Amino acid sequence: LYEIYSFGEQVVVMELEKLKQIGGELIFPKDLFSKVSLLNDTKLLILTLIGLSPVFLFRIVDFFAAFNYLKFYAIALYFSAIWGMFFYYLFKTDQVNFKSTLKIFFGLQILVLLVWSIFMVPGWPIFKIFYQWTDSPSFILRLLGFVLGVGFLEELIKAIPLMLIIRYSKQPVIPQTLVFYGLMSGISFGVFEGVEYQMMVNSKLNYSDAFFMNIARLTSLPFLHAVWTGIAGYYIAFGNLYPKYRLSLYFLAIGLPALIHGVYDVLGWSTYGLIVTLTSVILLMSYLKQGVNFQSKLSK
Description:
Layout: H1 2-22, H2 24-27, H3 35-39, H4 42-61, H5 68-91, H6 98-118, H7 125-133, H8 139-168, H9 175-199, H10 207-218, H11 220-241, H12 246-267, H13 271-289, H14 291-299
Helix pairs in contact: 4-5, 5-9, 6-8, 6-9, 7-8, 8-9, 8-11, 8-12, 9-10, 9-11, 11-12, 11-13, 12-13
């Protein structure tokens, strides 16, 4: 045992000596926590944001333990930030402005809060009947309820920030730019809706169903809202560029996403519902690919 201990001690001493030769600066560089080096390292900032944001957010909201809404909202913000970076990577243009993106993201949530919680728009007579149809045993009435009520109202609300971007922009906004802003508006709505469902509807489900639906409300469902509003942005942009077709294109901007939205709500997570979700993504990408052809068509 003594020989084993002696041998082990020699090995430890030798390895410590090697580490000493390497030098402590290579293990803990002097500028490790330098403010300048940290802020200028884009990869470090992205890696930290994606990997550590949840734990820091939870630590912050612990100070407001009485407000459970903040806990749900914090994690929703985390996922929306990831979606935002993903959309920025795929759809960014030279016109995309970070400040405008933030205004759309948070402004839309304030607008939805006003519409749903203060003005109680879904309860207005013009919408109330359609919302009542969503519980009808008739498939046709349910479809009409979800398309003309839920789909139309939600897609209209999500398109308002895009209309404002078009209205106050000092230069013509290209379709690709408004698609990006549409994606961000849709994600913003998905955050608001997702938190509401997690706190109210999902909490009444059994554990496995609640777990699945909570994940869906943070990932695929906000993504679908984003895609539908991206489609709206595509047509709104072209409507602004070609006033002759503006009314028709604005109708498509709200009507087409509302139709897809309503059909999906009726079909849910069935095989046909999943086909609708895939079709939504294919439509958006197809529109972007044929943008030049569409522009040529409108120019005639």
